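task queued by scheduler; priority normal; single chain, no ligands, no partner chains; default sampling; output format set to structure tokens
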Amino acid sequence: MKEHEFLALRQEGMSVLEYERRFHDLSLFAPHYVPSEQHMIEKLKDSFRQELKQGLIALQFKTVRELIEVAQALEACMEEGQQSHGGAGK
């Protein structure tokens, strides 16, 4: 059952950090789907929210940690942009 949960996992409303923790926990039940670090990187990138995925798609990462750090920075920039737009003129 956890394997199916892992395969269906998407970031949706979770932060990058929350999602990475959930991804890691569930990946322990489905190791054959992510047998290497590169497989983990690709699965993570593919299951991020669309706006994050678009910002990361052309980038190459050597480690999951590197991907998570860049994704967190991108997420913070996006949230900052939403806050500044939300307060302007409304």
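post-processing summary
- The first helix runs from residue 2 to 8.
- The chain has one domain: 2-87.
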